[in-house]
Amino acid sequence: MKRAFVVGHPIAHSRSPLIHNHWLGVHGIAGSYERLDVAPDAFADFVRALPGSGYAGGNVTIPHKEAAFRLADVLTPRAERIGAVNTLVVGPDGRVLGDNTDAPGFIAHLDQSLGADWPERTGGSALVLGAGGAARAVVVGLAERGLGRILIANRTPERAAALVALAPGVARAVAWDALPDLLPGTGLLVNTTSLGMAGHPPLALDLGPLPGRAAVADIVYAPLETPLLAAARARGLAAVDGLGMLLHQAVPGFAAWFGLRPAVTEDLRARIVADLRPA
């Protein structure tokens, strides 16, 4: 029986077992996927012991993504570029491969939600809000998708400037105060900050200047409809929630561990949405 995991600290909040165990059941695969709570000071030993653990690999979440990047024996080019690992795969030779599936997960969700031609319809330009780990994955994903202009805004300008190297010649850091002037030329607005998340203040940004062809994406999925997305829908703009990124980033790992590439379906999404609702 093949086994996989999601490791973090804390880990009780993770919805990953719901996703992967749903796929195991749908496809009749004899396997398991479980939560593992591993403290930071024990994580290095955990990774080193993986080849003899019986696990095919697993997902990595907060606070271990950067440590997994340092500890993996081999890195995919995308993981090297982003500087963080969210997926570990134990190879047949016992070496541990580190990958980052957040970037393709974000893009796959955009493609599914907006249609594969969204870069052309939105003018090939994006404005990314935030400069943390999620923003790194989003910028890399947008660059790989072929966007010609990616603007990055953060309240700490130096952090935004540090992300420009992820997409040379395409990405540019901009001032947070300049957002109102930048919106008219924006085809895709992406919020990667915690603003709008449950327990956090909303993102205070007037979407009025956005063109009618623009789309708005938020990586926050609790709540599923953030104030930013509600404002986008009120304006008649295409709105993309954060849950799809979580679902799509899980696909490559499942394929590597269990030998079958699953689909992100409405049934799966409904199961996770039901779990997100307050009891």
UniProtKB/TrEMBL annotation:
The gene is aroE. NADP(+) binds at G130, A131, G132, G133, A134, N154, R155, T156, P157, E158, R159, I219, G242. Residues 6-88 form the Shikimate dehydrogenase substrate binding N-terminal domain. It comes from the Bacteria. GO terms for biological process: amino acid biosynthetic process; aromatic amino acid family biosynthetic process; chorismate biosynthetic process; shikimate metabolic process. One of its GO terms (molecular function) is NADP binding. SUPFAM superfamilies: Aminoacid dehydrogenase-like, N-terminal domain, NAD(P)-binding Rossmann-fold domains. Homodimer. This is Shikimate dehydrogenase (NADP(+)). Pathway: Metabolic intermediate biosynthesis; chorismate biosynthesis; chorismate from D-erythrose 4-phosphate and phosphoenolpyruvate: step 4/7. It is an enzyme of class 1 (oxidoreductase). The lineage of its organism: Bacteria, Pseudomonadati, Pseudomonadota, Alphaproteobacteria, Hyphomicrobiales. It catalyses: shikimate + NADP(+) = 3-dehydroshikimate + NADPH + H(+).
